[in-house]
Amino acid sequence: MQWQQDDIKKYVQAKEYIDTIIMPLQPFHLTKDEKIAQTSYENEILTIFSNELEKELSGRTMRIPSYTYVRSADKEKEIERMKTWVTDIQEQPFEHLFFPTFDMTWKKHEINLPGNLIWLPVTQVEEIQSKEFKKWIHENVLQVSELIRSYW
Amino acid sequence: MSDKKKQVTRRQFLNYTLTGVGGFMAAGLLMSPLRMAIDPVLQPSGDGDYANVGLAVDDITKDPQPVEWEIEQVDAWYKSDVTQKAFVFKDDKDEIVALSPKCTHLGCMVSWEGSESHPDQFYCPCHDGRFTKDGTNIEGTPPTEPLHEYEHKVEDGMLFLGKAYPRGEA
């Protein structure tokens, strides 16, 4: 399910079946010219990845809007803010929360996160329409969905 | 300037005018039959709804195999390439069957023999939904209708798939 009108209407009818949240963690910044392109690229492909992951497991997962934060922000403070999202999410019967991200700085704070971090190493491709990139997405979606299923 | 204008004689003027008007009339008359004659060329849409999935008919076996292909999908705001998936096999009557892997319960992707304890079945990992090989939902599992089936046709030995429709309504 996506956090979109049509899917949410279905969700409300069938919420006992949907117990897993996919919440991508996406950094944002416009400082440091030399890094903006890379961060925006990562943002783009994490969005594609998360949507494809949702498609694979759409009957039991909800892909909510990405948790977006300023790249340089203090992670512990961000975790406090993230917890307010999670408190809201848990008003509904969600049991599993997964946070896919390319931002490796979360790894050190993983233990304090209110859900399961899925840190993926980023892949560099010239063209996101390329076969190579599609294959990368496909393989990662399969592996990560297997990981998610192991929690069910 | 006025000298030049006088160089056009009455005969020439009439000639130009008639040729011009006649030409338009002829073109107008020719347009419809011409358009009809080449219409099949302009409209591949009969085929457009079917996509070559890159599988030769000879390679289709009794075992469901996954195929993927891309179609261009246009919704109100975006045009995007969407990956379509199907499981293709030949049934006992040697007929080609192409089933959509989208679970009819809530839309997860099923896989053939995805559960070790249920061989010869499609299995949905989300809520343990199961379907027999012909796509029929197994009672006692969450799905309430069979897997959808793609329209298919064969051209030059290659498999083409169209739209998926609910079984029983086709």
From TrEMBL, chain A:
Highest taxon, organism lineage: Bacteria
Pfam families hit by this protein: DUF2487
InterPro entries: DUF2487
Protein name as annotated: DUF2487 family protein
The species this protein was found in: Cerasibacillus terrae
TrEMBL record, chain B:
Transmembrane segments: 12-31
Pfam families with a match to the protein in the record: Rieske (PF00355)
Keywords: 2Fe-2S, Disulfide bond, Electron transport, Iron, Iron-sulfur, Membrane, Metal-binding, Oxidoreductase, Transmembrane, Transmembrane helix, Transport
Domain Rieske: 64-161
Ranges in a coiled coil: none
Family matches, as InterPro entries: Rieske_2Fe-2S (IPR017941), Rieske_2Fe-2S_sf (IPR036922), Rieske_Fe-S_prot (IPR014349), TAT_signal (IPR006311)
Assembly description: The main subunits of the menaquinol:cytochrome c complex are a Rieske-type iron-sulfur protein (QcrA), a cytochrome b (QcrB) and a cytochrome c (QcrC).
Similarity comment: Belongs to the Rieske iron-sulfur protein family.
Function text: Component of the menaquinol:cytochrome c reductase complex. The Rieske protein is a high potential 2Fe-2S protein.
Protein known as: Menaquinol:cytochrome c reductase iron-sulfur subunit
Organism: Cerasibacillus terrae
